[in-house]
Amino acid sequence: MAKFTTRLQVIEVALFAGLGALLIRAAQVQVFQGHRWASEAQAQRTERIVLPARRGGLFDRHGTALALTQETYHVGVAVNELHDPDRDGALIARQLRLSPGDMRQSLRKRYAYFAGPYTAVDVQPLRAMRGVHLESVVNRFYPQPELAQAVIGRVGDDGRGSSGLELELDSVLAGKPGSAVVLKDRAGREYASPARVVADPVPGNDVVLTLDAELQDIAQRALDDALKRTNADGGDVVMIDPSSGEVLAMASKRRDRSVRPSALLDTFEPGSIAKIFAAAALLTERLVTPNERVSGEGGRYRLAHRTITDEEPLATLTLADAIRVSSNIAMVKFAARLAPETQYATLREFGFGAPTGVEFPAEAAGRLRLPSDWSGLSAASLAMGYELAVTPLQVAAAYGALANDGLLLEPALVRQVRGPLGTVEYRHRPEPVRRVVSPEVAGQLRELLRGVVEGGTGTEAALANFSVAAKTGTARRVVRGRYAPGQYTASFAALFPAERPQIVLVVKIDNPRNGSYFASQTAAPVTRSMLEQALAARDVALDRARLSTAAPAVTAADVEEEPGATPYVVPWPYHPDTAATLPQRTVPDVAGRNLRDAVYALHRRGFRVVLQGWGVAQRTTPAAGDSAAAGSSVTLFAAPHP
Q1: What pLDDT was estimated at residue 535?
Q2: What pLDDT, on a 0 to 100 scale, did the predictor assign at position 457?
Q3: How far apart are CA 568 and CA 588, in angstroms?
Q4: Helix, strand or coil for residue 237?
């Protein structure tokens, strides 16, 4: 009996000890570790999800959408929360385009889920309905995917900017994501139930770019045509507003179809379009007078161990002649008066050898060596546009300084930043970099460039009603650090109009293969075509009032009295066989088309265009169906929309 009692006592002690240990452990779990275990249980039953923010849109200067965030929705219905399942279900079915039978079947569940996706218009009547839960999904959308694609860039799979302005402006466009909590079962699967929003997403800012969508389209189409016609390796077009530095269009295309902004990234030796900067130094330092002449040396000039040549030499040349006919010999002789430090400083002042500062993820600085690194021929080479590497945007900015009375401005791609509620958070204002020449010298340089179009190498860019100031450039092409035999870069830089310029336009064509490789016959006609199309467009960034005072209007009487007033211009350099009779082309019927399409159709047939009026094309002179020589002028009469 005593043994039994002892055993019983041992069992009691063990039970009490176990119970005490259990109570101690329970207290430890509940009191001291309760928060941790509750958090783990909560984590097993819930999951925090990210609610993406609407990415801000990109728009052109007139409000045309270039990149948008398209918001679509999945729809969830908590059936037990509906006030009137039959009536509410009918409205839901109508908005989601579901049959009444399918809706009744779905509403038999505790929670009905409709993946869609559905638009904001579809779900708008459902937003205030009790029991309806909307899950937004955002996708980046480009209304015109090929328009300025290299400049705009794209977003990556994570929704963040991966290239172009999408990358550069990512922090401005991205917004702030929100968060929500969803329930899960013990296996970790999400319940079909609405998420509980913890923090609403904050939309990103919208950005208005300086680009003009219509000018961008004109540039891209003209560049495409030029590359097909010349069978070139690639090319670039840049247009800027010289009074503000705003980039109006930037088009790039390569034979390999790669999408990259080569107008910002690829450098080239500019050739003769850089001669105007040697002239700027000479005029600023007063080292040449207007009537001073140098010998043309019969077209061949020996300098050290190098022979410099001119295609079509003149006996003697002034500085104006040297620019007008693009004489290498005359420019080398005039530039020899410049000290190396002055020649270098002038090019550096115009922005060469340094990035422009435009808002973009990457930009080439180009190359401009210090005078201490020059050879004995470097000064002559620079006077002709060699030993200098530039981008098309740098050239446009430098010519913009000539148009802007000598004041160099920083190029810009961003015009405005607007908050989610439409408030303007940032507005671009012209950013002066420095004064490079005086207004008087800038005016003299514009006159030199005007002579190029009126009677020199740039006559193919001449317009019937407005003056253009420009410079051609044809340079040997550098490939992998060496001059490629038989390859050239044709470039053309223009100010339009010559008086109070509103647009600076730079065209570069890489290695044209078909026909002539000279810029006068490749890049200059492209410039004229783009300017004529810009004049025909209704909404491009041109001040029509200022243009109307720059040149007299052409009347119908003028056209009838002088039906071929703008003759075909013989290509430069002149060769006798190029003056042969030109092929006849049929004038297309463009009546009823908008003005820009009508001009484009006439260009494709090889005609120049003289505009008379605005609006819708009415008729042409010569008339539709008549024949006219390729390169001759066709007057297009237009009238406003009825």
Answers
A1: 87
A2: 92
A3: 19
A4: strand
What tokens appear for 90 in the block? 């009918």
Nearest to 279 by CA among 150, 412, 443: 443
Structural contact between residues 522 and 509, judged by C-beta atoms closer than 8 angstroms = yes
Calculate mean pLDDT across residues 262-288: 96
Query: What is the predicted pLDDT for the residue at 185?
Result: 53
Query: Best-predicted range by mean pLDDT among 224-233, 533-542, 602-611?
Result: 224-233
C-beta separation of 393 from 250 below 8 A: yes
Q: Which residues contact 222 (CB under 8 A, 6 or more apart)?
A: 237, 526, 529, 530, 533
CA 152/CA 4 separation, integer angstroms: 92
Query: Are 37 and 162 a contacting pair, CB within 8 Å?
Result: no
pLDDT in tens, 171-221: 999 988 877 776 655 544 444 445 566 677 888 999 999 999 999 999 999
Q: What DSSP line would sit under 117-172, residue for residue? A: EE-HHHHGGGTTSTTEEEEEEEEEE-SSTTTTHHHH--B-TTSSB-SHHHHHTHHH
Q: Which of 210, 274, 262, 207 is nearest to 236 (CA)?
A: 262
Mean pLDDT score of the chain: 84
- The residue behind tokens 């044809």 is 474
The whole-angstrom separation of Cα 270 and Cα 275 is 9
Give DSSP secondary structure letters for 416-462: EEE-TTS-EEEE----EEEE-S-HHHHHHHHHHHHHHHHHSTTGGG-
Local structure of 16: helix, strand or coil? helix
* Calpha distance 310→321 (Å, rounded): 13
Let me know: does 173 contact 97? Beta carbons within 8 Å.
no
Instruction: Decide: pTM greater than 0.70.
Output: yes
* String of DSSP letters for 268-327: B--GGGGHHHHHHHHHHTT---TT--EE-GGGEEEETTEEEE-SS--SEE-HHHHHHTT-
Which pLDDT value is given to residue 636? Answer: 84
